[in-house]
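Entry 12.
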Amino acid sequence: MDALIVTHNSADQLRETLDCAPLREAFPRIVVVDNDSEDDSLKVAESAGAEVVARGRNDSMAAAVNTGARLVRGEAFALLNPDVQPDSASAVTSLARHFAETDVGVVAPALRLPDGRLQGSARAVPTPRELAMRRLTGADLGAVWSEEPVDVDWVVAAFMLIRRVAFEDVGGFDEAYRLYFEDVDFCVRLWSAGWVVRLDPTVVVRHEHNAMSRGSPLGLAFREHVRSAGRFFMRHPDLLLPTGRDRLVRPVH
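Predicted 3D structure (tokens):
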């Protein structure tokens, strides 16, 4: 299986990730798509033997993912942040077993933060009120916690295995999202097309996560998060209503 990593000024994190022996064992071929980095991300990727695409612009993560998806090979591929590392190559094998079920479109592991806590990386689609409450109170609303594999509304795109036919079925990531909510939208569209999104918490990988969107309301990351949330609910207005969630259920065969 090939791996796809999108970078933007990610040199330090990417260097550690590409030095991770279990990751290199799991993914003999790694494609790095760079969104106009000003640091040494390209040199780090090239020196580590990754196949590199320099896009020369930083328009959206979604566009970079779609660019890379055209280059990776096989019936499934992995989408990784430059700051995630498995402790064992068997983590990927364990996740890939879920594709034996023909309706599973995406499967993701649990993510462990640097302080040892698990990240709330699988969630129910949030309401605008829940987004505001998370911002104001820091409450971890909507996170899905399980000890066994479970089907979920969406998983963060920090580390996910994607079935190629499912990716192509929904047209890949929506490039109208510059940053944030592209993974929520992708998973919702998978569900709407009859695919399943799954979390397997029996597999855990490390994630050096910095939660930029929770910074100052005056910051660019926060503003992009708000804009992307607005775009998401404009694209999926039915999810503002309880009945809209009917399309986020496992298909009955």
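Annotation: The first strand starts at residue 2 and ends at 7. The longest helix spans residues 220-235.
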